[in-house]
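Curious: why these numbers?
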Amino acid sequence: MFSAFHDFEYRPGSLQRWIQAAGAPDLKLPDVARKAMPFMLACTVLEFFVSLLLHKKVYYRRQTWSNIAGGAIGFVLSGLFLRGLNVFPYLVIYRFIGLKLVGPVTSNNIWVNIAAFLGFDFTHYWAHRAGHVMNIGWAGHGVHHNSPDLNFTTAFRQGITEPFIACWFYLPVALVSPPDVFFWHRSVNLVFQFFLHTQVIGKLGPLEWIFNTPSHHRVHHARNYGRVNYAGVLIIWDRMFGTFEEERDDKPCLYGIDERQVPLGTHNPLWQQLFHWVPTIKLFLKTHNPMVLITRATGEGMIAPHVSDALTRKDGKEYQKVNNQVFKLPKDGIPCDSSPVSLLDVYVCIQSLALAGPATLAIMRMCGGWNPADTVVAVLHTGGAFTTCGMFLDGTKIGRNYEMARLVLLAATAWFYLAAPYVYWVQAYSVVSIAVCGYVHKLAGLKETKAKEA
């Protein structure tokens, strides 16, 4: 399955190891999720065509882009800069305690693998549950839920800061499982969860009793059901701890984060990462009470799942409503942008998916041989492309300005990490892109004005 991994260096070591962690040259851990990425992307395309055959509206163009952009930022920033949080604490616990308790074991030991599989799935249940019941947990995990649709691209949309909370729940497994076994099962578990994010697969009969299924996970994402179904692979944890709810045919799932304030109003993936952190920090600074961080205390502008939140206090009074405006859902119940394709969409797709997307995959694959400075610059450029393109997709003037500033910065910094022939190509590309950006924004503004006049 994988090679034995017992004589490892558990200390943080160089900056490169913290940036690249499991992908660092001197610390190799199994990562099935990265290897499965091409297969998951292929399944996403397949789901799109299956949904067309079923005449089921599952994909919305701009929302799909938003999911992919959020996933790209999450995979690059969390997968590189924060990956150390998922790795080194576990290594330390195993080195000082686990290794002494269980002794050296081979990676293909059946009992060790059973312990790793059940251990991760069990602790993941509690980490996932904590992500819904604590403000600092929801600040990271809520990114995954603030998408108002559900398809395979929703699975890519992950919170950058979520490892800050989740990683500590997995440490008990380090008492019984070597790191290579644990991280292999962790990756496989997360790949399994990718296939839960779909509306084109119905109920799966007797499997629903034991395993987490797309049906169970649709309920978890639905804002018109309760706070339920936190499982990874085995749904038995939810059945054991009273957090299970079955999907009902007479109650179609509505996705999003709040019945009263459904959309975030922006395609900016960076703001989608911060939308709950900002009011949480404001609430803490206002109250000076650290309990607001580890509970679901609410403040002005804080968005949470409608049914799942405790809407009444202990004294029986209702918490203050969190929204200041009423959002009316369209007839199909999906608050996604269904506007026709425009040059704005084409520009954003070329700049982000066609250029920054492949660059993101290249960074994830080749960063092991780069020095930290080059890795940081590359990540900032790709992350910046998705962020400014998201702002530009909102059709705002400030979005256009940030996108132009990114292109200027791209041309300026090319001198530092590219050879002379390529520098000129990048600068020419930036100049053309700036001109096209201005033209597209002007055209989009004219169309918006005509639509309002009509």
